[in-house]
Design brief:
The structure is a homotrimer of 427-residue chains.
Chain A lengths: L2 H8 L6 H6 L3 E6 L11 E5 L2 E7 L5 E5 L13 E2 L4 E2 L6 E2 L5 E3 L7 H4 L6 E2 L1 E4 L2 E5 L22 E8 L3 H9 L4 H4 L1 H5 L7 H7 L5 E7 L2 E9 L4 E10 L3 E4 L7 E10 L2 E9 L7 H8 L27 H5 L10 H10 L17 H19 L18 E6 L4 H8 L12
Chain lengths: 427, 427, 427
Amino acid sequence: MDNQMSETLVRTGPGTALGNVMRRYWVPILLSREIAEPDGPQVRVQILGEKLLAFRDTDGHAALIDEFCSHRGVSLYFGRNEKNGICCGYHGVKFDRNGHCVEVPSLPKTREACKHLDIKAYPCIERGGIVWAYMGPKDKQPEPPNLEWCNLPDSHVFVSKRLQECNYLQAMEGGIDTSHVSYAHAYEVASDPLHMDSKALKYFADGNVIFEVEQQPHGLTMFGRRNGEPDSYYWRITQWLFPWYTLIPPFGDHAMGGHAWIPIDDENCWAWSINFHPGRPLTEEERTALEAGKGIHCEYEEGTFRPKANKDNDYLIDRQAQKEMRTFTGVFGIATQDTSLQESMGTIQDRSKEILLPTDRAIVMARRMLHDAAMANTLTPDAEPPAVHADRQFVRAAGVLLPRGQQPQGWAAEHLNNGKDKPVFSV
Amino acid sequence: MDNQMSETLVRTGPGTALGNVMRRYWVPILLSREIAEPDGPQVRVQILGEKLLAFRDTDGHAALIDEFCSHRGVSLYFGRNEKNGICCGYHGVKFDRNGHCVEVPSLPKTREACKHLDIKAYPCIERGGIVWAYMGPKDKQPEPPNLEWCNLPDSHVFVSKRLQECNYLQAMEGGIDTSHVSYAHAYEVASDPLHMDSKALKYFADGNVIFEVEQQPHGLTMFGRRNGEPDSYYWRITQWLFPWYTLIPPFGDHAMGGHAWIPIDDENCWAWSINFHPGRPLTEEERTALEAGKGIHCEYEEGTFRPKANKDNDYLIDRQAQKEMRTFTGVFGIATQDTSLQESMGTIQDRSKEILLPTDRAIVMARRMLHDAAMANTLTPDAEPPAVHADRQFVRAAGVLLPRGQQPQGWAAEHLNNGKDKPVFSV
Amino acid sequence: MDNQMSETLVRTGPGTALGNVMRRYWVPILLSREIAEPDGPQVRVQILGEKLLAFRDTDGHAALIDEFCSHRGVSLYFGRNEKNGICCGYHGVKFDRNGHCVEVPSLPKTREACKHLDIKAYPCIERGGIVWAYMGPKDKQPEPPNLEWCNLPDSHVFVSKRLQECNYLQAMEGGIDTSHVSYAHAYEVASDPLHMDSKALKYFADGNVIFEVEQQPHGLTMFGRRNGEPDSYYWRITQWLFPWYTLIPPFGDHAMGGHAWIPIDDENCWAWSINFHPGRPLTEEERTALEAGKGIHCEYEEGTFRPKANKDNDYLIDRQAQKEMRTFTGVFGIATQDTSLQESMGTIQDRSKEILLPTDRAIVMARRMLHDAAMANTLTPDAEPPAVHADRQFVRAAGVLLPRGQQPQGWAAEHLNNGKDKPVFSV
């Protein structure tokens, strides 16, 4: 990929082409429980290169405003969250959740006198245990996000996030690139009792996977074909939902998986990981395992969302375990495997040096869709990017046995990509 | 403030306009006790962007020379302090406190043979427990500093310094900006038995402070008016002494306070903190409290002058204590409150984004005086900056009750700003 | 030295003039025991600014290839070392020790299909417990290195390496500059029972050393003259072997010493330290001491080759010991003394500020030889640099008593610089 295209795809700060596109969607900002209490501690967050402050006001509204006071530039992190606003710790200048300056001790208490001190604020909503914000132009604000896991009861969903210390794109490409599962996660997947069953294991033993990709209005549908029963193929159907979501098929009645890959700045991203079951609450056993960092989740450095296994400790690589084929790469855990590989590419992968392979077709297509949307935004800022409408966002991943003669595209179109009327469970 | 003016005010390295101005004054370098013993360990110090080495020579003179040997550029920190000079650890090249190269093992022991190896050295004096250096042009060296706390008996003074990890200007502006006391330090000041008494507390309860500023030959005098007794106002009068000193009024017979804000480089400064009483020794109780880091002083990371509460640990913020109104910002200690707020503005505040308020008038005036002096130096390097003469440096802060009809400027001119003949005590 | 010449001498990355010259020699890469086992853990190494991966393949060959997979740029450190190659942890793309891509899961298993994925690989050999690589043009590969310590039995040699956090040149200049021994290492050398004997100590007491240097086809021979017996001088003869080796004379029957100063990148280097005795195995006592970090070796931070005494802890400087003349600089250990002084010059010494002395003649000559070779390479890339042929590399250091009337150059030419037929032992 040439450098110019790469620059377009990896830069998402204010005023960048792709940054403008991403600001047309609701953005996952932080876990609702990070600002659990009204008037509780405010939290610094950086998203799409913007330094922001999240808090819950007295009335219980989640809020997201500029981190810094407009007066002298002091961080409002050192302010007071009280009486429906954040009061700057330096001189008591106060802002509400709309960014309105509602009090300046040395000025009259009128809107007129204070409004030139107003700061940036983004509308927030809460779905699926996450505070989402809309950071784009006011007149383009879309309906609330309609991903399946957003709208299930709390009991059916488990959400975590972890810091990944590289550009969002190479992290997300790992989510799109289903072909790496057979290598990076080979022994991990096979030994996971929570997510695999004997049937899935049997199908998975077929290493000769055939990949197909189909461009969709919502993004991409990826198909991976393995031998199933004598008269059928086992198809694993994965989704990429523009601009930053991926969906992972379950095995049998296990929970489904999903990710959101959200830029913090151009050299860091949040890897959100979601497990959910559309038809039942997660079991106690499942929830305990997920909370312990199993599956696509991880353990953290105390008091942070930085993984305990990180680049400073070589991801706790265990060469003996690698030798004994208990882990393919020497690193344990799906999340850590992906992180170690992707961070090792550099904080921003130099894509001018890569040599793509046939299995990278989905990545190429996703890059092109992102690039097209960025170019469209440059030419026509009003242009509507893909899947910005809620009704495009209800898609599913699935694993399914189909007769050997049947192509999976039609089945997917009917069962996975057309809205919430036809929930489908996977084999 | 535009970027060009900001650049002028924050850059103080060699050859900068304001750096030239600052080099016309005696500069506080380090505590005398840091180089307590003749021929004791030398100490690396960086001041105004210059890397220097302080030591006490065999004869007991404090000395300040270039940190690096002129021969191969090795740090003289790894040399030997002995026989009235520092001997480089690499090849034994030796320098005395005047920077004269007095010995090169491979050259004849004559001044003529060695003088091309001479290094930078600055004249030093000691006052108030501090080693001061004059870093400016030789023919402009002024009389020794004449601040009141410089010339009191040791028993009457307590001095400390702490590293502040931001530009000196935003730190000093905090010292000039008396309006923040009612917010950042609100609960701190009110709960400090050592510095407040019941009368002061009564006056301080008046949150509606009226601020006035007056430009002076020595810098600025700031006046803060609160209700006093029925027929009087309680005036708190604070001083800014060009280019980097601030003076804080005492309450009643408590010790006075002062600061010096000295650039280390453009992203760090020394915040010197002084308490002193012109009329009596500090009590044992006072000294014990100050040594423990109370008041405007602080506790340190072991073996350093970096505060124990610093940006790496979010200044030990305590949200519960903030909630319970035991601290306004969540951070404890006047020094730490100022540091946390000022460091959060970035290492060099982006002043193009600030929106100043009526209470910032003193800051605006101080900036203008600094800028004027810098511009004057650019046009006429010989120009004399404010208060370079010792007789301009003896000024005082005070708290005083004045009849409601009386303006404080005249009182201050008579009692505070005109030299040492009329010591005044404050209410 | 002007900045342009300095740039030429300190830059050794791919495509630089001196980097090209250095790539004409076998380069010490890592200890053989770092990749002890066939199919054992691979090791990341950076040499001459190139990020590389060293491993031992199934057949036992040491190998050095690009650190990163040609497919997506992932570090092969997170791959599998098995079946004569490294298999990338992301998608199973596999490379052998020649850098040939031997397997791409999604491509046919033919050379033709895979060869566009080939990566950089350098031929390796092992000598003296070290893996060496040839990183230059294929048609210029010289005979294996012929330094004396390379070709002795394991029993006769002890090799260590340590990270030095500065440019290789200022580290190597310390090795060339024998005049610093009388200062930096003064008390260290005198108190070392393993390397000194009473006779050497007697000669060494003469502080008035006369230095001479002679340019050689292999580099430089440095002569240091002290008073010996009444009718003789004690000459210490040190060698610099182009481009990065130094050799240290022994005392009596003690082991000889040597160093290699290898650029990691422009701000770090490996200081290799070698002790060897051409005529006998090292004794148990000697080996124990060397393994404990005595002499020119050092102790490490656990699990690394970074010295335990390093710039983060001021090299464990002990001012009391310095005062008591147990160490000249306050730092203990020859390696640590050199490192502390040389790192204190900055990661790349600013040579425009140095003032050279008569004792720096060897340094000036070495710089000129390096510069000449770099310029020659720029004009004629085929030009042959000094001592690239093995028969030029067998030189020795020695300490010898010569009659007062005899110059040492002739003696050295006959006994030290002309190949392996005439081993000479030193007094």
